[in-house]
Amino acid sequence: MAAMNALHDGSKLAVDAHVKYVQSLDTKKDELDYWLTEHLRLNGVYWGLTAVHLLARPDALPRQGTIDFVLSCQHDNGGFGAAPGHDAHMLSTVSAVQILAMVDALDELDARGVGKTKVAKYIADLQDPDTGSFYGDEWGEEDTRFLYGGLNALSLLGLLSLVDVDKAVKHIQTCVNFDGGYGVKPGAESHSGQIFTCLAALSIAGRLDVVEREKLSRWLSERQTPCGGLNGRPEKAEDVCYSWWVLASLSILGRTHWIDRDALVAFILSSQDPENGGLADRPGDMVDVWHTCFGLAGLSLLQFPNMVPVDPDMASSLGSTRDCTPVSTNKLIPLLCTVCPDAPRFSDVSHLLTHIASKGHLHHETQTKLKAHQDIAASVTLQQYERWYKDNGIETLLVERMRAKQKKEAVRNIRKRDSTPFAPSKLRRKSKRSSQKAAVKAEDAEFPQEFSLFPGFFPSENDVELDEESISGDMLSLKGQVWPGMGKMDLANEDMKRTRNQRKPNSVIEKMRRTSERIEPNQVIMTSDFEVERIKGVYDSSSPIPDEEAETPKRAPRPKRKRPQALAEISVNVPRRGRRPSSRRNTTAKNTPPAPKEIMNDVLLPSVSNSSSIRHGHDIFRDDENRASGMAPRRLAIQSTNDVRYLRRTTFYGNCLAS
């Protein structure tokens, strides 16, 4: 019947019916089930109170009556029982602390109870000093549920220092399995409920670094069945309560998008009773307050419309834990953003503030504001975000962070007005071992040693604290313009608005001018011994001045090629008549090495009487009529070894013919 009604109603959540169902739980004292569940009475109050808080009905249950009932269950040792007269137990004590935190009545422990310190001592005494695990009571039952409950309650009380957190973390590490999950104790099977208790405890302790995120997230995402619901272990049926155990674990790991959101929402809504209220473990079963609480908590993690955000670590609404003192400052503020997709979580407040100031977050926030005019879900999401933004003082944190950053930068750059900008210093004595010549100009001796190579950066020894009087009048002249709507996302205070977008003061401009005059466009190349190796200009043809076209590189001159000597029509050994040897031949003759002496003697011309009968086709001798009688033999101009060999052969053949 519940499933048919849910399908008929579509995606509607019967808020009024669920509130009435929770309110009616304490009116069934004439029923047997009421007394059979007395051992869960205090836990049931926590489940019902959490449900109405998530439905944005925190006043549905009487606050004072709730406080009175909780305090009536307390023992003298500081622990709480499940009901008046029941023995104190860890689970009941944790529920009592969570209830008082939700109704903002933790101070009642000191006013009417035995005190916060005694409650915290009762919890701390249940920790095993050797293993770091926690017992459920004095009889020594061990379970990771008790460990998580102890850290949860102590963090709400602000007394987590009473226990050994490091040993508790080590015990959790011993419970991990090969699939990345956690069991109730070392060696036990991985279970979704135990995984949540271990992950939440590690998150409270700030030790999520020991978790195998990818492996565990894969195991958790496989818990979704074809019908959309989630189960606690493989091969088990789906159950509404695992919508919290599995989804909260994925939320801590930042992997809520690894499951089918719409299918899970449909499964949870199909398990509700829209007429009488309440949620069952699965469609068609009887409703109970346990599944009602954790089914609604799952819808809150899925950002269902009109639901109050829930803290996955503390298993309570965000508003109930924001004023509690946790293990670290990370828990002062719920470290998640509900306006962005998948409600991302953050490791610390600084990470959260960085996200809030990012363009991506501002984009999603603006889109949500635009959709809020027509979409009811977007309107509810925006209201929740704005309430979270206001309650946790996010604006103040952003302003303080910006002011601290601005002051830090100003202190680093502001100098005393009466201090000398450049203190002269002696030049460093050059090492005699260096063979490099000094390449620094004489005027470089005036360059101060303290002056940084980066213009505008000065040593921190002259820094002074930022003083309002040091701000000159010309710094207050703004050149910016404020446009309509800018103030909605403007996080600057009045002082920051006055000093931002300001033009540089005259003192800064003068300092920049003096700096530019002392800097030359040269590149000083140093050796490994900090000696000047060479100095080269920065602005040359290879690196032109900015905004100036590069100079066209000149083409390198090609080397002149020597023209090969043309073949002579006549032998070079024959002297030209009335002609002066050309300069080219003279050059060639100069470059030609002289022939050996013995070779020159072999090629002497024969006497006139002996050479008159020589006739040869190759014109190497003068004609007889052109030769004067009695002329002394002359040497031939030998050009190369080949010419010598050729001349020998010619002489030989000529002698043979003459004979």
TrEMBL record:
Domain of life of the native organism: Eukaryota
CDD domains assigned to the protein according to its UniProt record, in alphabetical order: GGTase-II
Composition-biased stretches (Basic residues): 426-435, 555-564
Enzymatic class: transferase
UniProt cross-references to InterPro entries, sorted A to Z: PGGT1B-like, Prenyltrans, Ptb1, Terpenoid_cyclase/PrenylTrfase
Record keywords: Metal-binding, Prenyltransferase, Repeat, Transferase, Zinc
GO terms of molecular function: metal ion binding; Rab geranylgeranyltransferase activity
Cofactor list: Zn(2+)
Biological processes per GO annotation: protein localization to membrane
Protein's UniProt name: Geranylgeranyl transferase type-2 subunit beta
Organism annotation: Epichloe festucae (strain Fl1)
